Amino acid sequence: MALGKDYVTQECSIARALEIVGERWTLLVVRDAFYGVRRYNDFLVHLGIPRAVLASRLQALTAAGVLEKHRYQDSPPREEYVVTDRGRELWPVLRSLGAWGRGIPGALPMREFRHAPCGTPVGVVGECPACAGPVPLEEIEMLPGEGLDRDPADPVSRALLAPRRLLQPVVTGTA
């Protein structure tokens, strides 16, 4: 039996969420948006995703209110994608999924996340154990982990080697 393309017969909030973020590539696009990737070409080179798939995922995430377009150039017109408040609600999901992935045998941490004001590693769902509370996304610093390639080919990966706060735009010089 072929796997269906949607979950319309499922009466479940997880199924409804999967309608938005359950397609291949979608959570990686959202992850990159949290990392500060905003421009179409930067998503394209960092993810190695087919153009049509990226365009479809960005359109769906924008329609669902996870990302929103902001014009950054008028001539020629160019837009970037910014995480919305609705999109920010996905951070604990991505953080938990990443922590789960670290438990796969042989996996080395690709990124480390710290509460910038106190330097404490951020917990599985985005909390600070030292400060005893949730950490605002703007206060999460991302650092390269031991499993990350230190000499990547693409400019986005090179930019993401430097310690940086989440949601801060990646600047690569590509349009």
What does this structure look like?
The radius of gyration is 17 Å and the shape is globular. The longest helix is centred in the first third of the chain and has 13 residues, at 51-63. The protein has seven helices and eight strands. It is an alpha+beta fold. The chain starts with 12 loop residues before the first helix and ends in a 10-residue tail after the last strand. Helices cover 35% and strands 18% of the residues. The strands form three sheets. A four-stranded antiparallel beta sheet has the order 4-3-7-8, with no helix packed on it. The protein has a two-stranded antiparallel ribbon with strand order 1-2.
Largest sheet: 4 strands, antiparallel
- Global shape: globular
Our count of helices gives 7
Strand content: 15-25%
The arrangement of helices and strands along the chain is HHHHEEHHEEEEEHE
Strand order of the largest sheet: 4-3-7-8
Write down how many β-strands occur, each being a DSSP E stretch of 2 or more residues.
8
Q: How much helix, percentage-wise, in residues?
A: 25-40%
What is the alpha-carbon Rg in Å? Answer: 17 Å
**Structural class from helices and strands?**
alpha+beta
Q: What distance lies between the first and last C-alpha atoms, to the nearest angstrom? A: 44 Å
Mean pLDDT: 92
Low-confidence stretches: none
